[in-house]
Write a structure and sequence with these properties.
Blueprint lengths: L3 H9 L5 H15 L7 H5 L4 H15 L4 H20 L6 H8 L8 H11 L14 H16 L1 H7 L3 H19 L3 H4 L7 E2 L4 E4 L2 E4 L2 H16 L23 H11 L5 H13 L4 H8 L3 H12 L2 H14 L1 H5 L1
Antiparallel strand pairs: 1-2, 2-3
Helix pairs in contact: 2-4, 2-5, 4-5, 4-7, 5-7, 7-13, 8-10, 9-10, 10-12, 10-14, 14-16
Length: 330
């Protein structure tokens, strides 16, 4: 028998503490509709994305939040909770489950409807974008990029329509930034010969990096699209515009893609996330700055996120000490 409170406790075992508050707000919303807890299962099995949007509006009015990021976090918590319920077979709602798992670019998907509501809500404002992204935001961003680059519709239309070419290229750019943490303007300098699909590698600022298999295959699809539009030989840079000109230094196209996912059109939050992960792996400041192209101020901003993680500091320190020549001698 489905028990709401028990399911929430089970769900929250491996989730951020903020999810508890968000689900409490969702519970308040459901009860505000005069639905007894004994009827939660029946209610859950009939809801659609529009009900989650209604609950989000309730959350906004009840708490007085103004940041789009907070609204996005709330809907992420609720969505992941329902995904958990479906996975555990605690409830059955095939229509809502379908909306959740449709790709973001599909107008009938959960994420598309939610983002559209957040973007147009009069009380919500876009944040400055200087805060680091959280893991769940990065994970979702990569998932949407992968969905975009595997979509047959987008791949087929990218050959003939700028809108779809830009979607595919933006997804690939974001995946590359997720690997390297590099600034957008530095991407404009990558040459076609810097990509080596035979050896699954790419050269960035003189450094040769191995590409994950999936990312390598996505680059291959991008190269196939460029071949189809006749840009394979004449381009001066790896990334180009649909008209075959050098990639614009204006980030608006990629920013628009980002906004469909995380409601933030800047890349700084993602870059900071990647840089902090590099710090946690003990990669030196010199290498990080050389690879990413970030300056002192952003590097210092990233250090504050890393320096508070004493567990990681201990792990990195001990790992590096064990690799020193003198360690074995001692």
């Amino acid at each position: 028998m489905f028990n709401f409170k028990n399911s929430v406790i089970e769900f929250l075992n491996q989730k951020p503490s903020t999810y508890k508050y968000h689900l409490k707000m969702f519970e308040d919303f459901v009860k505000s509709k005069r639905i007894d807890e004994s009827l939660f299962k029946e209610f859950f099995q009939g809801l659609r994305t529009e009900v989650i949007i209604e609950s989000l509006d309730y959350y906004i009015k009840k708490t007085g939040i103004s940041a789009r990021g907070r609204a996005d976090h709330y809907t992420s918590a609720v969505k992941e909770y329902f995904s958990f319920l479906f996975y555990k077979n605690y409830i059955s709602n095939s229509e809502f489950e379908r909306e959740i798992y449709l790709p973001t670019h599909d107008e009938s998907s959960f994420r598309y409807k939610i983002n559209n509501f957040i973007r147009h809500h009069a009380s919500l404002k876009e944040e400055d974008g200087f805060d680091i992204l959280e893991w769940h935001e990065v994970k979702r961003l990569i998932q949407v990029c992968d969905e975009t680059m595997i979509s047959k519709e987008i791949i087929d239309k990218a050959v003939n329509m700028q809108k779809y070419y830009n979607k595919f290229r933006s997804a690939l750019l974001i995946k590359l930034i997720s690997l390297t943490g590099m600034k957008y303007e530095n991407i404009c300098n990558i040459k076609p010969e810097d990509l080596n699909l035979t050896y699954n590698s790419i050269k960035i600022n003189g450094l040769t990096l191995s590409l994950p298999n999936n990312l390598r295959d996505q680059f291959e699809r991008y190269e196939h699209i460029n071949k189809e539009i006749g840009a394979e030989k004449e381009r001066a840079t790896l990334f180009i515009e649909f008209d075959k000109s050098v990639l614009s230094s204006n980030t608006s196209t990629t920013a628009n893609f980002l906004k469909t996912v995380n409601e933030r059109g800047d890349l700084n939050g993602l870059i900071k996330y990647v840089v902090v992960q590099m710090m946690k792996e003990g990669i030196s400041e010199v290498i990080i700055k050389e690879l990413t192209g970030i300056k002192e101020k952003m590097y210092d901003d990233c250090k504050q996120y890393f320096s508070n993680d004493i567990t990681t500091l201990n792990r990195v320190l001990n790992s590096r000490l064990r690799n020193m020549e003198i360690f074995d001698l001692l």
